[in-house]
């Protein structure tokens, strides 16, 4: 029978007819008071038993009592983030100062390195625009000098 289609008065009559008072769950055997049986203990939830969960729950309750929102961070976390941010800013400033305080020798080396890179790029561009027969001729010269060196050795 489906009880959801019955009128409310019939449902209450069915409830009254049950001898166990409407309780569908079976009763455990250990209530009988048998001393030979080991009574089961309720298992602990490992999440709720953990210290971090308890501390977080306590903090949430305190914040709720104070009227703070969930979005606001605890003081310790704010302080740690502030310190991290300050440390990063300090490191960036030190790096910038180190770049500014480069010796003249290091600056000159950097300039020469940049010039060499530019020259290499220009040569690659010129080689790309050169006709194909010139490229082939250069390759032939390279192979002929390599084979000539091998014969001499």
From TrEMBL:
<dbReference type="GO" id="GO:0051017">
    <property type="term" value="P:actin filament bundle assembly"/>
</dbReference>
<dbReference type="GO" id="GO:0045202">
    <property type="term" value="C:synapse"/>
</dbReference>
<keyword id="KW-0539">Nucleus</keyword>
<dbReference type="GO" id="GO:0032956">
    <property type="term" value="P:regulation of actin cytoskeleton organization"/>
</dbReference>
<dbReference type="GO" id="GO:0043005">
    <property type="term" value="C:neuron projection"/>
</dbReference>
<keyword id="KW-0966">Cell projection</keyword>
<keyword id="KW-0009">Actin-binding</keyword>
<dbReference type="GO" id="GO:0001725">
    <property type="term" value="C:stress fiber"/>
</dbReference>
<dbReference type="GO" id="GO:0005925">
    <property type="term" value="C:focal adhesion"/>
</dbReference>
<keyword id="KW-1003">Cell membrane</keyword>
<dbReference type="GO" id="GO:0005634">
    <property type="term" value="C:nucleus"/>
</dbReference>
<dbReference type="InterPro" id="IPR009533">
    <property type="entry name" value="FAM107"/>
</dbReference>
<keyword id="KW-0131">Cell cycle</keyword>
<keyword id="KW-0206">Cytoskeleton</keyword>
<protein>
    <recommendedName>
        <fullName>Actin-associated protein FAM107A</fullName>
    </recommendedName>
</protein>
<keyword id="KW-0175">Coiled coil</keyword>
<keyword id="KW-0346">Stress response</keyword>
<comment type="function">
    <text>Stress-inducible actin-binding protein that plays a role in synaptic and cognitive functions by modulating actin filamentous (F-actin) dynamics. Mediates polymerization of globular actin to F-actin. Also binds to, stabilizes and bundles F-actin. Involved in synaptic function by regulating neurite outgrowth in an actin-dependent manner and for the acquisition of hippocampus-dependent cognitive function, such as learning and long-term memory.</text>
</comment>
<dbReference type="GO" id="GO:0030041">
    <property type="term" value="P:actin filament polymerization"/>
</dbReference>
<keyword id="KW-0965">Cell junction</keyword>
<feature type="compositionally biased region" description="Basic and acidic residues">
    <location>
        <begin position="116"/>
        <end position="141"/>
    </location>
</feature>
<dbReference type="GO" id="GO:0003779">
    <property type="term" value="F:actin binding"/>
</dbReference>
<dbReference type="Pfam" id="PF06625">
    <property type="entry name" value="DUF1151"/>
</dbReference>
<keyword id="KW-0963">Cytoplasm</keyword>
<dbReference type="GO" id="GO:0005886">
    <property type="term" value="C:plasma membrane"/>
</dbReference>
<keyword id="KW-0341">Growth regulation</keyword>
<keyword id="KW-0770">Synapse</keyword>
<keyword id="KW-0472">Membrane</keyword>
<feature type="region of interest" description="Disordered">
    <location>
        <begin position="116"/>
        <end position="153"/>
    </location>
</feature>
């Amino acid at each position: 029978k489906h009880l959801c289609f019955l009128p409310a008065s019939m449902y209450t009559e069915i409830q009254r007819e049950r001898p166990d008072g409407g309780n569908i769950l079976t009763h455990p055997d250990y209530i009988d008071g048998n001393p030979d049986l080991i009574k089961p203990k309720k298992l602990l939830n490992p999440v709720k038993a953990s210290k971090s969960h308890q501390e977080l729950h306590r903090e949430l309750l305190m914040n709720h009592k104070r009227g703070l929102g969930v979005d606001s961070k605890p003081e310790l976390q704010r302080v740690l983030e502030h310190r991290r941010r300050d440390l990063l800013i300090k490191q960036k400033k030190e790096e910038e100062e180190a770049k500014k305080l480069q010796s003249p020798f290091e600056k000159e080396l950097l300039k020469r390195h940049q010039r060499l890179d530019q020259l290499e790029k220009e040569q690659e561009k010129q080689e790309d625009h050169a006709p194909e027969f010139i490229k082939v001729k250069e390759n032939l010269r390279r192979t002929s000098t390599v084979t000539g060196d091998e014969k001499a050795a």
